[in-house]
Amino acid sequence: MGYKWTIPKPKPGSLDEFVQRTYDIRWTYPQMRVGQAFYNCLDDLRPDLANDIVLSAIDPYHDDNLIDMAYEYVKENWDVRTEDRTFLYP
């Protein structure tokens, strides 16, 4: 009898789901840059956070080198209410 390995699905709406969906998009559409996949997934799951980073100094859509900074911002603010966040620009 063989073992069937399964990877648990992340909780819907969680940061883990965001990371998994970004990875899945990159796997499915390798021509899409990671910054594009990151932003598109974020805009789908958390448009409020996507709105925070769009056109900011850490917007990864056009520059994959900004992924680390954008991810840190998203991670730190995933569970923070919009009115309690420190915004990146006025």
Average pLDDT confidence is 90
The DSSP helix count reads 4
The biggest beta sheet reads: none
Which structural class is indicated by helix and strand composition? mainly alpha
Percentage of residues in strands: under 5%
Helicity range: 40-55%
Integer-rounded radius of gyration: 15 Å
Rounded to the nearest angstrom, the distance between the terminal CA atoms is: 61 Å
SSE order, one letter for each helix or strand: HHHH
The coarse overall form would be globular
Instruction: Catalogue the unreliable spans.
Output: none
Q: Work out the number of β strands.
A: 0
Provide tags for this entry.
mainly alpha, 4 helices, 90 residues
How does this model look, in words?
The longest helix is centred in the first third of the chain and has 14 residues, at about 15-30. The chain has helices spanning about 15-30, 35-45, 45-55, 65-75. The protein has a domain at about 35-80. The chain is globular. Helix 1 (about 15-30) packs across helix 2 (about 35-45) and helix 2 (about 35-45) packs across helix 3. It has about 90 residues and is mostly helical.
Task: Give the helices and strands, then pairings.
Layout (H helix, E strand, L loop, with lengths): L14 H14 L5 H12 L1 H7 L13 H11 L13
Helix pairs in contact: 1-2, 2-3
Question: Briefly, what is this?
Answer:
The chain is mainly α and 90 residues long. The protein has helices at 15-28, 34-45, 47-53, 67-77. The chain has a domain at 33-78.
